[in-house]
């Protein structure tokens, strides 16, 4: 594995701005992290200003596009200095493909160029230059831009290169009929609201926001006259922003305390590997993985708040009549912490990336969609071996969890106590399974992953593999039995029953 730089000697050496170095020294936090938070806070204030003083009714769309892009470019250069060249090169390559490629191939060229450039940057930054003499990690914005370039290319392909009857309802809704101009392209990819920490969003939603149609489009889905309104209301994002900033503050405090108290290095110390019993190892693994979450909660919730402050992210009205600002939310913390299935956990973690994977891979590939989606996710995240340990293990866990749910859940739905017991059991198993699966993702390298899996991983991995194999055999037996019964009764086989879901 690439040698990690020592924070004490390299915290000052960054490609980004060094004007906040005294603050970095005072707080004892690496300068690149201080620059990141400073840019996000500046983006938050800029977002309020953007919503109040550059309102769509008073400012042209071109001005709003230009200001959003200029602020975004400045923040990128402030954080990453000359490393931001990689971002601009990828954007220009993406636009060259957008204007020159045929609509039948635009999605393929964009996907392979964007993912190829991102992968080359991952490899060179980690394994060739070994971080060089610098600590700045520019891969985050590059990953977000890769998502946007490919999302836009697939949606242009859907709108201009496919027949409407071949599209799903969602693809038809998001299909783009006119290629964006250069200014619109720059604004979509590099706007200050999402260029640093995301999230990825659909091009149509972003353009509707710039043009001032975003909120009204969502409100038109509700019949307001039945509710006594004679005109569309004007929902304010202020409440949602304050709520998300409170979550951000709590996450920051947890990161500064809990994460430092239970660092991931605890999983490879002598006590954990040689002295702790198996139940203690599982519990400690869960605690350490919980302690690693606040930094993600902080970054993603703050990014969501920035978009909302600018007036972007309105998703409509819930069943209680409340305005919702979660169109761009990247996680649902409550559903993550109470998840009773691996599927439920994944659906509420890094939501916009899951949406991107569904758009460019899961719905498009003709075979093995689950496996290929996990592999693409690992490749997009980077080239650390730990990512591949996590995502390949995640395939087995996902298939095993799906088989368990299909074969056993219905036995526990007959009464409330049984359902409560089932939910409690599946919650505990899900949280432990997730902790086991994502541990290599956090540790990154091969050596600590193997050290962890020697006492813990082999038995867990074997259990999951055996459970999946047994459930596959059970489903095959049930399918064969059903087939024989139907044959004896002279009944045609149902297409759905003859397919084994393993």
TrEMBL record:
Q: Which GO terms of type biological process are on file? A: lipid modification; phosphatidylserine acyl-chain remodeling
Superkingdom: Eukaryota
Where would you find the membrane-spanning parts of this chain?
34-54, 66-97, 109-128, 387-404, 425-446
Task: State whether keyword Ribosomal protein applies.
Answer: no
Q: Which UniProt keywords apply?
A: Acyltransferase, Endoplasmic reticulum, Membrane, Transferase, Transmembrane, Transmembrane helix
Q: How does it sit in the membrane?
A: Multi-pass membrane protein
Q: Can you say where in the cell this protein is located? A: Endoplasmic reticulum membrane
Establish whether keyword Protease is in the entry: no
Q: Which GO terms describe its molecular function?
A: 1-acylglycerophosphoserine O-acyltransferase activity
Q: What is its main location?
A: endoplasmic reticulum
Gene Ontology cellular component?
Answer: endoplasmic reticulum membrane
- This one is known as Membrane bound O-acyltransferase domain containing 1
Q: What is the native source organism of this protein?
A: Callithrix jacchus
